[in-house]
């Protein structure tokens, strides 16, 4: 039981207080979990979800750095008894649970940091811890991790545990086992996501500022190294499973060289250290979004907390600032825009929120009613302002679009696409887990990677028979990029175009392209559902199978809403033009144009063709 400086027991001080007691963090985590499950996605989502869900379900190898811990834990989730729940939905629930676990430990983290500050009432600290945790829980980037299966929900859970164990291990009289447990969990965190390294500046500062640079501090680090390495053992999954040639075998990391390239993400390293102007713009964008992400008022509280920390608890202040700066460096200088990279920065801000609430409580007279109001505001403001953005429970955009693309293809067709996030990744799951149109070949920009060619040939035997010279010409160039050697991008693009053209003209499969590919490869483009089919310009056009599309209501202001709405509208108009101009069926053409306007009333081509085809 905690005792304050006057000797008054904390229990007596907080009697009747709503969040008093040892279950504060659990209550907050369960409250957030209920919201997360309410707003969780019930369908395919874009980005890496389809690939990662397929990898976990089939025990494959994911894109660098492989994420072995996530894959293994995901496999356990998908095979656990849960009748009637599809694997991807189980994985989404798992992500919601992981985010709730992260909140439980972040609540504990805030408590440890605040424990160094004397307070007139333990309830002050409890309110500060709760307010910071609830604020963090409903920032849009944190909240988004609960909606679908991704690497970052597990990253959050492990990061929160790592930081709690680290701070506990620095306490006077802490058992050595706590330090060892920290080292092991740190290794596990690295086996999930390398973004864990961003914790290093803050943790190293706090470690040496408390323990000094003497031999004892270095010996302590040395004792943790073997246990840390033990935490990295999930990486052994990659070469072992890769040798079994799973369906998804990204990079084939069976040899030491390919294993190292995979876990070090060498194919992405050229994207580090962008220009100063690009970095500056990305940081401007981050700070411009920060007030709305934190629902304005909590961010003001965070600024108060930062000033308070630098004046009264400099170590905690510098710790939070280093967490923020390391994250900002990564955001700015990595040539890839991903809001998930902001997570470390956001929980650094949440630390400042905790101290800000603490500072306000110490200054305000009759603090308890005001603190309860502040607690409610810190909870309700982010929840209310970010709910619409975070709610994916009725977002079927990606799944319905991917299904419509697959249904636009004749049997054994080939689709060339550059819609990796919107279509290729979800289609992995639809084809290889759900079993939707496994006959269709989907080829995207990864075609130049040897492992991807092997994946395609395994899934579709005989795919490149007759096109070996064109394929080898492409691989000859792209192997240089895989080895980190200079290569001619224009020549690689030309080789890719030659392969597409050869497959369309000489292969025994119909070839299609998605709407994002403007180039026609010197061939004729025939509308086919929500795709174009490529045919010889001199050959008679194949019969057109006019198609309607089945999709659930498209919510506004979601990722890809405008893009997919435009694709549907364009597909309807293209079929309408084909019906009216090629087949002289203006009635059918007008029907398709009206369908386009039903999808997007502002779609200019549809409005123009409505005027042209309407009876006068």
Explained architecture:
The chain is globular and about 85 Å long. The chain has a five-stranded mixed beta sheet. It has helices at 10-13, 24-39, 49-58, 68-79, 87-114, 122-137, 140-144, 151-169, 176-190, 200-211, 215-231, 237-243, 256-263, 276-293, 297-312, 314-333, 343-363, 367-390, 397-406, 420-432, 450-459, 468-482, 489-506, 561-582, 586-599, 604-613, and strands at residues 414-416, 441-443, 511-513, 524-528, 531-535. The chain starts with 9 loop residues before the first helix and ends with a helix. The protein contains 26 helices and five strands. Residues 1-21 have low confidence and may be disordered. It is mostly helical and 616 residues long.
How is this fold's topology laid out?
Blueprint lengths: L9 H4 L10 H16 L9 H10 L9 H12 L7 H28 L7 H16 L2 H5 L6 H19 L6 H15 L9 H12 L3 H17 L5 H7 L12 H8 L12 H18 L3 H16 L1 H20 L9 H21 L3 H24 L6 H10 L7 E3 L3 H13 L8 E3 L6 H10 L8 H15 L6 H18 L4 E3 L10 E5 L2 E5 L25 H22 L3 H14 L4 H10 L3
Helix pairs in contact: 2-5, 2-6, 3-4, 3-20, 4-5, 5-6, 5-8, 5-17, 6-17, 6-18, 8-9, 9-11, 10-16, 14-16, 15-16, 15-17, 16-17, 17-18, 19-20, 22-23, 24-25, 24-26, 25-26
């Amino acid at each position: 039981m905690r005792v304050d400086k006057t000797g008054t027991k904390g229990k007596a001080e907080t009697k009747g207080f709503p969040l008093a007691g040892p279950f504060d963090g659990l209550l907050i985590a369960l409250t957030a979990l209920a919201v997360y499950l309410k707003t969780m996605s019930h369908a395919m989502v874009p980005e890496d979800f389809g690939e990662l869900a397929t990898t976990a379900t089939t025990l494959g190898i994911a894109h660098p750095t492989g994420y072995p811990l996530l894959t293994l834990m995901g496999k356990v989730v998908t095979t656990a008894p849960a009748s009637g729940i599809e694997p991807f939905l189980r994985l989404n629930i798992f992500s919601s649970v992981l985010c709730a676990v992260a909140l439980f430990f972040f609540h504990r983290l805030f408590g440890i940091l605040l424990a160094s500050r004397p307070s007139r009432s333990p309830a002050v600290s409890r309110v500060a811890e709760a307010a910071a945790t609830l604020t963090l829980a409903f920032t849009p980037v944190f909240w988004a991790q609960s909606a679908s299966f991704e690497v970052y929900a597990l990253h959050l859970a492990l990061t929160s545990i790592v930081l709690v164990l680290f701070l506990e291990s620095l306490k006077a009289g802490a058992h050595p086992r706590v330090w060892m447990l920290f080292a092991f969990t740190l290794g596990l965190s690295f086996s999930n996501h390398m973004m864990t390294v961003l914790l290093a500046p803050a943790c190293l500062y706090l470690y040496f500022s408390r323990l000094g640079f003497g031999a004892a501090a270095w010996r302590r680090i040395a004792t943790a190294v073997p246990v840390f390495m033990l935490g990295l053992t999930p990486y052994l999954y990659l070469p072992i499973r890769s040798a079994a040639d799973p369906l998804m075998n990204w990079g084939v990391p069976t040899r030491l060289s390919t294993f190292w390239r995979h876990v070090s993400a060498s194919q992405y390293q050229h994207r580090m250290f962008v220009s100063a102007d690009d970095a500056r713009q990305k940081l401007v964008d981050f700070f411009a979004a920060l007030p709305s992400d934190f629902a304005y008022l909590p961010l003001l509280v965070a600024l108060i907390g930062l000033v308070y920390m630098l004046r009264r608890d400099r170590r905690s202040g510098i710790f939070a600032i280093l967490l923020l700066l390391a994250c900002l460096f990564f955001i700015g200088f990595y040539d890839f825009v991903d809001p998930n990279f902001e997570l470390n920065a956001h929980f650094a801000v949440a630390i400042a929120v905790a101290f800000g609430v603490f500072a306000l409580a110490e200054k305000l007279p009759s603090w308890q009613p005001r603190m309860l109001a502040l607690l409610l505001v810190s909870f309700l403001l982010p929840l209310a302002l970010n709910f619409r953005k975070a709610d994916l429970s009725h977002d079927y955009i990606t799944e319905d679009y991917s299904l419509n693309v697959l249904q636009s293809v004749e049997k054994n067709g080939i689709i060339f696409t550059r819609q990796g996030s919107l279509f290729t990744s979800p289609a992995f799951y639809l084809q290889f887990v759900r079993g939707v149109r496994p006959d269709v070949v989907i080829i995207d920009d990864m075609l130049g990677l040897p492992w991807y060619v092997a994946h395609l040939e395994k899934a579709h035997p005989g795919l490149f028979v007759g096109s070996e010279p064109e394929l080898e010409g492409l691989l000859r160039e792209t192997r240089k990029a895989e080895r980190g050697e200079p290569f001619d991008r224009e020549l690689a693009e030309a080789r890719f175009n030659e392969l597409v053209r050869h497959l369309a003209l000489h292969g025994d499969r119909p070839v299609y392209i998605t709407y994002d590919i403007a180039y026609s490869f010197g061939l004729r483009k025939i509308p086919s559902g929500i795709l174009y089919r490529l045919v010889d310009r001199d050959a008679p056009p194949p019969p057109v199978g006019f198609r309607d599309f089945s999709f659930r209501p498209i919510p506004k202001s979601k990722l890809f809403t405008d893009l997919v709405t435009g694709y549907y509208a364009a597909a309807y108009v293209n079929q309408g033009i084909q019906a009216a101009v090629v087949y002289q069926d203006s009635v059918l053409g007008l029907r398709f144009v009206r369908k386009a306007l039903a999808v997007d009333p502002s779609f200019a081509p549809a409005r123009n063709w409505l005027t042209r085809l309407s009876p006068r």
